[in-house]
Design brief:
Blueprint: E1 9-11, E2 14-16, E3 20-25, H1 29-45, E4 49-51, H2 55-74, E5 82-86, H3 88-93, H4 95-102, E6 106-110, E7 122-125, H5 128-137, E8 140-143, E9 149-152, H6 160-171, E10 177-182, H7 187-201, E11 205-211, H8 222-227, E12 246-250, H9 256-264, E13 269-272, H10 274-282, H11 287-305, H12 326-332
Parallel strand pairs: 3-4, 3-13, 4-5, 5-6, 6-10, 10-11, 11-12, 12-13
Antiparallel strand pairs: 1-2, 7-9, 8-9
Length: 342
């Protein structure tokens, strides 16, 4: 539409066709069923895709490869990033090493999610032999009254020693490191701690995705999504200093204008899950690419209103945002009434 505006961007060290990330989707049925199509679409679209937690335990190395390969076979040359995520159990099982061997561009340490603060990733299953297998791997397994089972991922520790060990383990792949965390009490301290560890050990920590209110996919508790947490963008005005890694926001971001607002508040971009699932379901394989094209046009429109020609110039233009309520003003540190800017 506005061809003089550049919407190509960078997230971490990776060139991307738009400042958006396909958020982590892991071993759940909805994610694994749609996974290959979403993977192909993300590759065609030239955006980063994160493969979520518990893939090795649920589907093995072959399942991880099946999720990764469509991206690798269809990615636009020079764009995007294939990121393999690991929680504590995954990391102990060698998910980063497996991802590296299969062609990942980066690894992501998962420490939290907006819809699962202090709740691990979960699935349901029926076989007793699987219950024993998952227990040995380190998962929490609960037997339901009807004879079926629940598998829950242990919540990782966020103290400095445990965090350092997780980052150092990720660094053994020599790939760029991403981090996934949920907003909550102590988030500013966590960001500062990550910055400290990065500098002390010379780590290639490039991106931190902060999830918040509304975030969640296949097995997220609906009431947790709707009734808990804060919008992830509320972390930005609380930071005393801009970190050396990019901040990507997640949780309820669905279109180009949402991405633009995240960037204007100070983020590098936004991560989306359900929006991509819907796009991929409506038009398999190319739905994601079509959706990213729509996001690009929406970002072009916003850039035009701001009289800028590069999408990266949106970052930090918070003075051009106005809160529509006193509550939003307090949360995001914005002017509350339009008359103050007219």
């Amino acid at each position: 539409m506005f061809h003089q505006i550049n919407v190509d961007s960078k997230i971490g060290s990776f060139r991307v066709r738009a400042p958006v990330v396909m958020a982590a989707m892991g071993s759940t049925k909805v994610a694994n069923t749609a996974g290959p199509s979403l993977s192909k679409g993300a590759g065609l679209a030239g955006i980063p895709m994160v493969i979520g937690e518990n893939m090795l335990a649920s589907h093995g190395k072959a399942g991880l490869k099946a999720r990764m390969q469509p991206y690798l076979d269809n990615r636009e040359k020079g764009y995007g990033a294939l990121v393999v995520q690991g929680n504590g159990v995954d990391i102990n099982m060698g998910v980063f090493e497996a991802g590296n061997e299969l062609g990942a561009d980066a690894v992501e340490v998962k420490l939290g999610q907006g819809a699962k603060q202090n709740l691990g990733g979960e699935i349901t299953f029926t076989e007793p032999k699987d219950a024993e297998k998952y227990k040995k791997m380190g998962y929490h397994v609960v037997k339901n009254p009807d004879g079926t089972y629940q598998r829950h991922t242990p919540v990782g520790a966020l103290d400095e020693k445990a965090l350092t060990n997780a980052y150092l383990k990720a660094a053994e792949t020599d790939l760029p490191i991403w981090v996934k965390i949920a907003i909550g009490r102590g988030i500013v301290k966590f960001i500062e701690m990550t910055e400290k560890i990065k500098k002390q050990h010379g780590l290639k920590i490039e991106v931190m995705t902060i999830d918040g209110h509304g975030g969640g996919t296949g097995m997220s508790p609906w009431l947790i999504m709707e009734e808990t947490s804060l919008p992830s963008a509320t972390v930005l005005p609380a930071l005393k200093k801009k970190p050396s890694f990019d901040i990507v926001l997640a949780g309820g971001y669905n279109d180009g204008f949402d991405v633009a607002k995240a960037m204007m508040l100070g983020a590098r971009g936004a991560a989306m899950g359900r929006a991509f699932l819907i796009a991929g379901k409506v038009t398999p394989d190319v739905g994601v690419k079509n959706f990213v094209e729509a996001l690009r046009e929406e970002l072009e429109m916003v850039c035009a209103t701001q009289r800028i020609t590069d999408v990266l110039d949106l970052q930090g233009r918070r003075n051009n945002l106005v809160a529509l309520s006193k509550g939003a003003s307090d949360l995001f540190g914005l002017t509350a009434e339009s008359k103050k800017v007219l």
